[in-house]
């Protein structure tokens, strides 16, 4: 269930012309191999993809792979010169950490969090 505060931020994003970006990660515990993908959607929310990016990675745990997906999403948005975004993810823990100003569970990944928060003129994090 989406909070009233989050709903207001999402509505503000639509009014400001924020672009939706959805990122996802996969991770295999035994091999420590994973992959991340980020997709930029049209502003109106239609299924049409504007741009996407992906990469393979090594991670010690699933949350680290989840954080790396945010990194690829930020790189993609920078490449497209987007500064107003709605970042969507299915990792509630990560979205809450970012929404709370980057209070990162693992200090090794704090640079990614600060990079995300510093670049955008408008950003809202949405758990989907």
UniProtKB/TrEMBL annotation:
A GO molecular-function annotation: RNA-DNA hybrid ribonuclease activity
Domain RNase H type-1: 23-103
InterPro entries: RNaseH_domain, RNaseH_sf
Designated name of the protein: RNase H type-1 domain-containing protein
Residues annotated as transmembrane: none
């Amino acid at each position: 269930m989406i909070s009233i505060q989050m709903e207001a931020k999402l509505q503000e994003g639509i009014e400001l012309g924020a672009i939706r970006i959805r990122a996802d990660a996969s991770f295999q515990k035994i091999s420590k191999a994973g992959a991340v993908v980020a997709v930029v959607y049209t502003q109106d929310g239609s299924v049409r993809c504007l741009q996407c990016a992906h990469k393979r990675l090594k991670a010690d745990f699933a949350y680290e792979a989840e954080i790396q997906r945010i990194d690829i999403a930020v790189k993609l948005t920078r490449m497209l010169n987007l500064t107003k975004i709605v970042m969507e993810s299915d990792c509630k823990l990560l979205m809450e950490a970012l929404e709370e100003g980057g209070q990162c569970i693992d200090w090794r990944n704090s640079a990614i969090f600060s990079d995300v928060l510093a670049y955008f003129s408008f950003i809202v994090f949405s758990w989907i």
